[in-house]
Design a protein that fits this description.
567 residues, 3-stranded antiparallel beta sheet, 3 strands, mainly alpha, single chain
């Protein structure tokens, strides 16, 4: 039986007694780790960013029209020029409007569409935001419940395989939605299943990162030098070797994380291109937009399923100590998370502050991606192929940006934290420019060309922000708590967010427009970015490399606190 102290001792003893890992085996593991990012990124970058929101939103709107008592009016572009009245026309910057032509004077007026609702009074466009928000709430529960499993036995790889397979199959089932507009609610259910499964799989996937970092030749040599200096020269004289070990870890973290993010964007972009080709072909042969989007969404599931099995062949078990025999491991996740947060509050309070800031800004840039597609469709009148082109631009430049910003850091030797702050401030320019549209009809995300330009900008900074966010986070993980910490990390990683979609759902439900959401997104970038600039994480990083102390008395006390709800 192992408690947290035993878990840490097991890691330390393994690290001390074992020789450096065979470079060939480490390379194989790294390749497998990169391939899994290549595989699962198709879900977020293609299915969930583009095709699933558009498909479910359109189904929900069509079903809402049927509840309104009439079918959706035809688009003016589908009618003869002399009959284009009482029809829908999308006005750039304002979205769909009802076009009415006066029979006598010939003057054209536009009016807002009637207020449409789904069962329960939900706005159709608000539905997709609500489903994403609810799915991430379930994600958070699942992350904490299963997060600690990755630190015991062979659960690390087993959890990765099971969660990934369930999520990929759920993504494949989006192909069934176009059968009927009434299937919109099934789309919401599949969003929840696939979103939760992806997040859980990446909890186990990310728990490999700090272990691989420790096995790199540079970190292994630096850690051994640190230990030797401590034994031979004492604590004071070993400070230089400790700093060298820290820099080696940060460099390895940054490099592996950036490469993983880069390959993720390459995989997501490649799948997106295949999906766009499928949309083009199915549209050309006369299939409906619904079926085009359904097929494109399911392609991401097939992609995820196929390449993930290639990754599983290369990733080792990375076993931990045997799980406790007299404890419920699912409850242990909550107990260990509580103890982890309490420990961090005592020895490294700035780590908890970083977690809070990380949650806000990562939720923010994930929401930007989701909002942009629906904003482009609903308010900028962009069609399926235009949206597909935009969706290709973002991940393509994200891959380039992740690599470019990493090279920038290598040359400038700036910390990951500093580069992350710069990225957040640059990302804030996108919602800031959109807010200009409140004051003028000419610019400020009023034309599609503006979104294309900002898509390049957003992508170039997004990949880097995600990579350096993960690198900084990895530096703060206490030994033996890799899966626990990445369970918290994953709540807002891989495009997962609940606060942004929740606020978006409320805004759309209240105003019927998406543009006001940009105000929240601006604050979600600027405020945490500014606070992160002044946050000192030096002590937190040092504390993370020490033992996470704990004994049976503390464990019983914390377990009681979790069960009773009192500290």
């Amino acid at each position: 039986q192992f408690n947290d102290h035993d878990l840490t001792t097991h890691r330390a003893q393994t690290r001390t007694m074992a020789p450096a890992k065979d470079p060939a085996l480490l390379r194989r593991e790294l390749v497998g780790w990169y391939i899994y990012d290549f595989a699962n990124s198709a879900y977020f970058q293609s299915a969930m960013t583009v095709f699933v929101p558009l498909l479910v939103d359109d189904l929900a709107n069509e079903f809402a029209w049927s509840r309104y008592g009439s079918s959706r009016p035809e688009y003016c572009s589908d009618l003869a020029s002399d009959a284009q009245t009482n029809c829908l026309q999308c006005v750039e910057g304002d979205g769909n409007q009802l076009r009415v032509v006066d029979a006598i004077s010939g003057s054209v007026t536009y009016s807002d569409l009637p207020s449409l609702t789904l069962p329960g009074g939900i706005n159709p466009t608000s539905f997709i935001f609500s489903m994403i928000s609810i799915s991430v709430l379930f994600q958070a529960i699942a992350f904490i419940t299963v997060g600690s499993l990755g630190d015991y036995g062979n659960y690390r790889k087993r959890g990765l395989v099971y969660a990934s397979t369930i999520g990929a199959i759920a993504c494949c089932l989006f192909i069934l939605l176009p059968i009927s507009a009434s299937m919109y609610w099934v789309g919401g259910l599949l969003i929840m299943i696939s979103n939760v499964s992806l997040g859980v799989s990446v909890v186990f996937y990310n728990s490999y990162l700090p272990l691989m970092v420790e096995d790199t030749a540079e970190v292994f040599a630096a850690v051994n030098a640190e230990k030797q200096g401590l034994l031979e020269q004492g604590a004071v004289a070993s400070e230089k070797s400790q700093e060298s070990a820290h820099k080696a870890r940060e460099a390895a973290n940054s490099e592996i994380s950036s490469k993983g993010m880069m390959w993720g964007y390459v995989g997501g972009t490649a799948c997106l291109v295949v999906s766009v080709i499928a949309v083009f072909i199915t549209t050309a042969i006369g299939m409906s937009t619904w079926w085009s989007f359904g097929i494109a969404s399911s392609i991401s599931g097939v992609w995820w399923l196929f390449f993930s099995f290639m990754a599983f062949k290369r990733l080792p078990e990375r076993p931990g100590p045997d799980p406790p025999t007299n404890k419920n491991l699912l409850l242990q996740g909550w107990i260990r998370t509580y103890r982890l947060i309490k420990h961090l509050a005592n020895v490294a309070p700035n780590t908890n502050y970083f977690l809070l800031l990380f949650f806000v800004f990562s939720d923010g840039y994930a929401t930007i991606a989701t909002v942009s597609v629906l904003f482009a469709s609903r308010e900028l009148c962009m069609g399926a192929l235009e949206l597909s082109a935009l969706a290709v631009i973002v991940p393509l430049f994200a891959a380039i940006g992740a690599y470019g910003w990493h090279q920038f850091q290598v040359k400038t030797k700036w910390s990951s934290q500093t580069v992350l702050v710069i990225n957040l401030m640059l990302l804030a320019l996108l919602p800031l420019w959109g807010c200009v549209g409140f004051f003028t009809k000419e610019i400020g995300l009023r034309k599609p060309i503006e979104l294309y330009i900002l898509g390049v900008w957003f992508g170039a900074c997004l990949g880097s922000a995600q990579a350096f966010g993960r690198a900084v986070f990895s530096e703060l993980i206490p030994k033996g708590h890799e899966a626990d910490m990445f369970a918290l990390f994953e709540i807002t990683d891989k495009g997962s967010s609940w606060l942004g979609p929740l606020i978006s759902a409320v805004v759309v439900q209240t105003t019927g427009r998406i543009r006001p959401v940009l105000l929240y997104l601006l604050l979600a970038m600027v405020l945490p970015g500014g606070m992160l600039h002044f946050l000192d994480l030096t002590q937190s990083i040092k504390a993370a490399k020490g033992d996470v102390v704990g004994d049976e008395d503390e464990e019983r006390e914390d377990e009681s606190a979790v069960l009773t709800g009192s500290a």
